TrEMBL record, chain A:
Any Gene Ontology biological process: amino acid transport
Keywords noted in UniProt: Signal, Transport
Solute-binding protein family 3/N-terminal domain: residues covered: 33-262
Gene3D superfamilies in UniProt: Periplasmic binding protein-like II
Iron-sulfur keyword on record: no
Signal peptide (UniProt feature, chain positions): 1-21
InterPro entries, sorted: Bact_solute-bind_prot3, Solute-binding_3/MltF_N
Protein's UniProt name: General L-amino acid transport system substrate-binding protein
Family statement drawn from the similarity comment of this UniProt entry: Belongs to the bacterial solute-binding protein 3 family.
Pfam families per UniProt: SBP_bac_3 (PF00497)
UniProtKB/TrEMBL annotation, chain B:
PANTHER family linked: INNER MEMBRANE AMINO-ACID ABC TRANSPORTER PERMEASE PROTEIN YHDY, MEMBRANE COMPONENT OF AMINO ACID ABC TRANSPORTER
All residue ranges annotated as the ABC transmembrane type-1 domain in the record: 231-425
NCBIfam families reported in the protein's UniProt record: HEQRo_perm_3TM
Protein name, per record: L-glutamine ABC transporter membrane protein /L-glutamate ABC transporter membrane protein /L-aspartate ABC transporter membrane protein /L-asparagine ABC transporter membrane protein
Organism field: Thalassovita taeanensis
GO terms under biological process: amino acid transport
Lineage summary: Bacteria, Pseudomonadati, Pseudomonadota, Alphaproteobacteria, Rhodobacterales
UniProtKB/TrEMBL annotation, chain C:
Chain ranges of the ABC transmembrane type-1 domain: 92-410
Keywords, sorted A to Z: Amino-acid transport, Cell membrane, Membrane, Transmembrane, Transmembrane helix, Transport
InterPro entries, per database record: AA_ABC_transptr_permease_3TM (IPR010065), ArtM/GltK/GlnP/TcyL/YhdX-like (IPR043429), MetI-like (IPR000515), MetI-like_sf (IPR035906)
Highest rank taxon of the organism: Bacteria
Transmembrane intervals: 23-44, 87-113, 134-152, 209-227, 248-271, 291-316, 362-380, 392-413
Record family assignment: Belongs to the binding-protein-dependent transport system permease family. HisMQ subfamily.
UniProt keyword Membrane, yes or no: yes
Identification of the protein by name: L-glutamine ABC transporter membrane protein /L-glutamate ABC transporter membrane protein /L-aspartate ABC transporter membrane protein /L-asparagine ABC transporter membrane protein
Lineage: Bacteria, Pseudomonadati, Pseudomonadota, Alphaproteobacteria, Rhodobacterales
Length: 338, 437, 422
């Protein structure tokens, strides 16, 4: 008698799922919402506030894509994922794009059948230790207890690093950053290792950040970027160029402050092409002409997103480093909009 | 000779018993210090109670209700002078003040909070005729039957026609049964009554519902199930799983008792399989595999998948509870039903099940408590139940580093829910046992 | 006379499959079987299609590849170069360790608490009630993370043991250290070791057994058997003559002497933990994650077992206690010799399901980073290889086998203590 909620809901779900075979872009447009996978919570990158509104650097990418496709940066459903569930959520079509500081690796790209559309943060795995420990290099860590977050590339890098340096360690696997922080602060582990950005973000929230140092060794390359399912190139292009638009906007000096003024038309043809006053770039992507303008207006250009969420003025206080524009000696280098 | 012997002629007034045997002292001597061993135990336990309370209470009573962030709490505590050797000592209750609504409702839109609250109140009205048979008019059982549909509509919103059309499936099934049982006979009627509604749901319900809602649009704002969170999610999962698993559990229990070898072994296999694996593996199936088992292109959201797996999980336990109820019925009931000439289904429906379900209620309640507690496991697959939300809250820069306040609050709420339910189940057990004497 | 004719030969009609009770059950069974097989075929077909679309056909080959990650608690040799299969085996052993430890302590605690709940001491009975209600009504996952947090926050880090003005000290004459990384206890060492017994060659389930331990155990078990024979003989003498010979020194000697001799011959000594570098070295390290999980599971399950024990004791009629009291037994002996043995028969069946629950709940190890089989096979391995279907199938199979084994063993034990009714 009472089984119908289940059956009724199932039929509804079955109906709703009918169109999943079409292209992701059409799906998103038809749905009017972008389903974006984020972490369950990482300071500066993605966390819900008291009203349930998500905020952060990765969240900014999601909003930019939503604004580019749907013209509305709030038309995003954020789907929290763990290290374990993120890939299946993407592969099964539950989310359209995964922006969850995911490292671009060969096997994820090739074996797990995903497409990384670019890099929104160049990171590397580092170590944080209390200053009082008197350690200045990761090579001094023989016999140390190391806290690592499981379900990431971190634990593989760590095993490789200690093995190649022929020193021993004691891994303490931990599910979330919050727990790792607790264990590290209580001295249950000597070292906390994760991406350098995560270390800085974590250190920033300590009562006494100056008592902890991040060791100079960066033991891995961690290009973090948004990814989509393999095989849907139209959708991959949309996400890739939405990200590129943010980066190019910073390079060309388009900010959320001057974008209204610039979109009236400028002397720089590339700015005009990006903002849709010249050429048909939007049409080629299957989007409206002002797609990139919407994306940039969603949260500002790459630099603005960075400063607002994780930059030097925030408690996290990351410097641009590798993530500066190529013109400033960083690695951000977007292909031309032409 | 004069008799000098003293003879008391009147009875002395009763003396009060010695101080050591009455009042608090007497009670304490009887119950706390009745021997050296008991005395030691008493003193020890007093010491334990004192040490626990003296360390917890100052922490609990901390003036941080208005704290806006952990750093702010620390300032308030420092100003209040609660500083120990490891920094400030005292809870930071500001996080609860700021986030308690989120811990309750997750990301459910705040202007729509009345919907889950109303549903929760209606849940008690619906449970009344089942749980408190003495005080509630039994006519309300109709409402209990309708409740799942109303609840689904209130919680998820959307067109009212969806639940109505789903409900119509049962009405159609019942109508078919009534008609066919006179025209074709009992067994054919049951088969038809099972088949026709399924055909209705699969092929007709969707178009009919959308057709009706285009004619008479009567809608509540739709709320995506991924906005469900906090205790509302726990309760939704728990209640849905129990309601849905009841019919499944009955079928499984009957199957396990049946003489038909294949039916029996299928049921036993299912029950033992589900009971043999941990819930977390079933949740892994929900989060990673269920979509793979469905036809290509199907995709339904994670909450629904979790509901399915938790329902299957609860059904196996429910089957065992109901089997216990069936076994507890005296054999005379079965024989009596047979001697009246009732066939199997009539006997089950009119005689066996009403009694078996009644004595199973305490077991069902404790199954529910178990399932409700187990809903915390969904945090491992990234659903934002209270425990999952506590991680998300700790990822907020303001509240990074908070531990005990959130765990304590969550534990307290779970305790209140589960304790009251287990008390109810005990009350019921007592009532049921006296019925037999 | 013989007007009876043969009953008319019934021709078989299709409708008889439903209406004739002779065929009906067969019909239902066939229909059920067909339904089940259709469902299974549908699921398998869907799965095959989906996996093909994902380009991940079922393949267990990944189990032989090198795992690439380290595991902290390993009872057998394992390194990041070992295979995923080996990692799963390490995890399985860890699951079994915590399950066995948990079942033992939960039983002991549960019996003590169950008995104390019926104590005449008002305060003790109340405290135990509070304990039981507290643990039963809060999810076990919450208890696990809670206990882990308590261990981490309240115990001193190894650093605190260091230097001149150390704030923490080792206990039991410097042999045991309680730190927030776990407890370090002395480990048994043999200076004239017999070496190890290597089982299963080079396969993923290869296993070393210390021969020293085997020999010591043999000596101990031999001693216990000898002691029992002495006791039996004493019983016989008592039955025959009424006098019981004093045997305690014989029993003690039989148990202790051979074991001590063997241990001395092997050069038994204890290896003490000592602070070296970042951590304590030497001794046996019981990690926080193990302790938190073990404690939480035992305390949680003990609350349920206590209720079963209480119910079992209450089920024994008061006459038993009174009769035992009339014989002059002390209350503790009444409980131990009269009430508990009888209550055991009521307690064991629910105890089985508690053991099963505890074992299954040990899969929550993932919350505190204890590397059980859910953490290795169902966690990191699944994550790194993306082989969800294979990993989860194996995981379920393992738990199923463990559960069925526990029920089998406990049911067999239950049969053996059952009241023999004649």
């Amino acid at each position: 008698m009472k089984k119908s909620v289940f059956l009724g809901a199932l039929t509804v779900a079955g109906l709703a799922a009918g169109a999943a075979a079409a292209g992701t872009l059409d799906d998103v447009k038809a749905r009017g919402k972008l389903n974006c996978g984020v972490t369950t919570g990482l300071v500066g990158f993605a966390a819900p506030d008291a009203n349930g509104t998500w905020d952060g650097f990765d969240v900014g990418i999601c909003r930019a894509v939503a604004a580019a496709v749907l013209g509305d940066p709030t038309a995003v459903e954020f789907v929290p994922t763990t290290g374990k569930t993120r890939f299946t959520a993407l592969a099964s079509g539950e989310i359209d794009v995964l922006a969850r500081n995911t490292t671009w690796t060969f096997s994820r790209d090739v074996d797990l059948k995903f497409d990384f559309v670019g890099v929104n943060y160049y990171d590397g795995q580092g170590f944080m230790v209390p200053k009082a420990l008197g350690v200045s290099s990761a090579k001094d860590l023989d016999g140390a207890t190391v806290c690592i977050q499981t379900g990431t590339t971190t634990e593989l890098n760590l095993a490789d690093f200690f093995r190649s340096n022929n020193i021993s360690y004691e891994p303490v696997p931990i599910e979330t950053n919050a727990e790792a922080q607790q264990q590290y602060l209580a001295g249950a582990c000597d070292v906390y290792t994760t991406d350098a950005s995560g270390l800085a973000a974590t250190r920033a929230t300590f009562e006494d950040p100056a008592a902890h140092i991040v060791l100079p060794e960066i033991i891995s390359k961690e290009p973090l970027g948004p990814l989509v399912r393999h095989g849907d190139n139209e959708w991959g292009d949309v996400v890739r160029w939405a990200l590129n638009a943010l980066i190019a906007a910073e390079e060309l000096g388009i900010t959320s402050a001057n974008i209204a003024e610039l979109s009236a038309g400028t002397n720089n043809p590339e700015i005009n092409r990006i903002l849709g006053t010249e050429g048909t770039l939007g049409e080629m992507l299957g989007l409206s002409p002002d797609w990139a303008k919407n994306a940039i207006m969603a949260g500002g250009n790459y630099g603005e997103l960075f400063e607002k969420n994780i930059g030097a003025s925030t408690p996290i206080g990351l410097s641009r480093g590798l993530n500066a524009q190529w013109t400033d000696g960083g690695l951000l280098y977007t292909p031309p909009f032409r | 000779m004069s008799d000098i012997a003293f003879v008391r002629t009147e009875i002395l007034p009763q003396k009060a018993p010695p101080v050591a045997a009455t009042g608090f002292i007497g009670w304490a001597r009887e119950n706390l210090f009745s021997g050296w061993f008991n005395s030691i135990l008493t003193v020890l336990s007093l010491a334990v109670i004192f040490s626990v309370l003296s360390s917890i209470l100052p922490w609990v009573f901390s003036p941080t209700w208005n704290g806006t962030s952990l750093a702010n709490c620390r300032e308030i505590l420092t100003a209040a002078g609660s500083v120990g050797e490891h920094g400030t000592t005292g809870a930071c209750w500001g996080v609860i003040r700021e986030r308690w609504l989120q811990l309750m409702f997750g990301f459910y839109p705040s202007e729509l909070y009345w919907r889950p609250i109303l549903t929760f109140v209606m849940l008690f009205v619906a449970l009344g005729p089942i749980l408190f048979t003495d005080f509630v008019p039994s006519k309300l059982i109709w409402f209990s039957g309708l409740f799942p549909f109303i609840a689904a509509w209130l919680l998820w919103g959307g067109s009212i026609w969806n639940p109505l059309v789903a409900l119509a499936g049962f009405a159609i099934g019942f109508g078919v049964f009534r008609y066919a049982s006179t025209a074709l006979g009992a067994l054919a009627a049951i088969i038809l009554a099972a088949l026709v509604p399924i055909l209705w749901w699969v092929f007709l319900a969707g178009p009919v519902a959308s057709g009706l809602s285009s004619v008479i649009p009567l809608e509540l704002e739709t709320v995506q199930s991924r906005n469900f969170g906090g205790f509302m999610l726990s309760i939704t999962i728990g209640v849905t799983a129990i309601i849905c698993s009841l019919p499944l559990g009955i079928i499984l229990a009957l199957g396990r008792q049946s003489d038909l070898l294949i039916v029996k072994s299928l049921c036993v296999g299912f029950i033992e399989f589900i009971r043999g694996v941990p819930l977390i593996t079933l949740l892994f199936v929900a989060s990673t595999l269920l979509n793979i088992f469905m036809p290509p292109g199907t995709n339904f959201d994670i909450i629904l998948r979790v509901l399915i797996m938790v329902t299957l999980f609860a059904a196996a336990y429910m089957a065992e509870v109901i089997r216990g109820g069936l076994a507890a019925l005296p054999k005379g009931q079965y024989e009596g039903a047979d001697s009246l000439g009732l066939d199997y289904w009539q006997a089950q429906r009119l005689v066996i099940m009403p009694q078996a379900l009644k004595i199973s209620i305490p077991g069902i309640v404790s199954t529910f408590i178990g399932v409700f507690k187990d809903t915390t496991l969904v945090s491992i697959i990234a659903l934002l139940d209270p425990l999952g939300l506590s991680n998300a809250i700790r990822a907020d820069a303001n509240w990074n580093g908070i531990v005990w306040e959130l765990y304590g609050f969550i534990a307290l709420l779970f305790f209140v829910f589960c304790f009251s339910m287990s008390r109810y189940s005990m009350y019921l057990e007592r009532k049921l046992t006296t019925d037999h004497h | 006379m013989t007007t009876l004719t043969d009953p008319p030969k019934e021709s078989f009609r299709l409708s008889m499959l439903i209406y004739d009770t002779r065929y009906r059950s067969a019909t239902i069974q066939v229909v059920a079987m067909l339904g089940f097989m259709l469902l299974a075929a549908w699921l398998i077909n869907n799965t095959a299609q989906n996996l093909n679309a994902l380009g991940k056909p079922i393949d267990f080959g990944f189990l032989g590849e090198s795992a690439g990650y380290d595991i902290n608690q390993r009872l057998i040799d394992y390194s990041s170069r070992s295979s995923h299969m080996r990692a799963a085996f390490v995890g399985l052993l860890n699951t079994l360790v915590v399950a066995v430890l948990g079942c033992l302590t939960a039983t002991v605690l549960g019996i003590i608490i169950g008995v104390l709940r019926l104590s005449k001491n008002w305060l003790i009975a109340r405290i135990m009630t509070v304990y039981v209600e507290m643990f039963r009504n809060v999810p076990v996952l919450l208890w696990i993370v809670f206990l882990m947090a308590i261990l981490i926050e309240t115990l001193p880090p190894p650093n605190a043991f260091r230097g001149e003005n150390a704030t923490a000290t080792m206990v039991l004459s410097d042999s045991v250290a309680f730190t927030n990384r776990g407890v370090y206890v002395p480990e048994p060492l043999f200076s004239r070791s017999l070496g190890d017994l290597h089982l299963f060659g080079e396969s993923a389930v290869r296993f070393d057994i210390s021969l020293d331990l085997v020999v010591v155990l043999i000596a101990l078990i031999g001693g216990i058997i000898g002691a029992r024979m002495v006791k039996k003989r004493a019983d016989r003498i008592q039955e025959a003559t009424g006098d019981r010979p004093t045997t305690w020194y014989l029993v003690l000697g039989l148990i202790a002497v051979p074991t001590i001799i063997v241990m001395a011959a092997l050069g038994f000594h204890l290896g003490y933990p000592a602070l070296k570098g970042f951590n304590f070295q030497g001794g046996t390290h019981m990690r926080n994650s193990l302790i938190a999980l073990w404690l939480a599971l035992s305390l949680y399950t003990a609350a349920f077992i206590a209720e079963n024990v209480r119910a079992g004791i209450l089920a024994i009629s008061k006459g038993q206690t009174e009769a035992a009291g009339a014989l002059g037994l002390r209350p503790s002996r009444i409980m131990r010799l009269v009430v508990l043995p009888q209550a055991l028969r009521v307690i064991i069946p629910p105890l089985i399901s508690q053991y099963l629950n505890l074992t299954k709940n040990s899969s929550l190890a993932i919350a505190v980073g204890y590397m059980d089989i859910t953490g290795t096979l169902g966690g990191i391995t699944m994550n790194q290889t993306g082989r969800e279907l294979e990993c989860i199938l194996m995981l379920m199979l393992v738990y199923l086998v463990i559960s069925l084994t526990i029920s089998f063993v406990m049911n067999w034990y239950n049969e053996s203590v059952k009241l023999r009714e004649r």
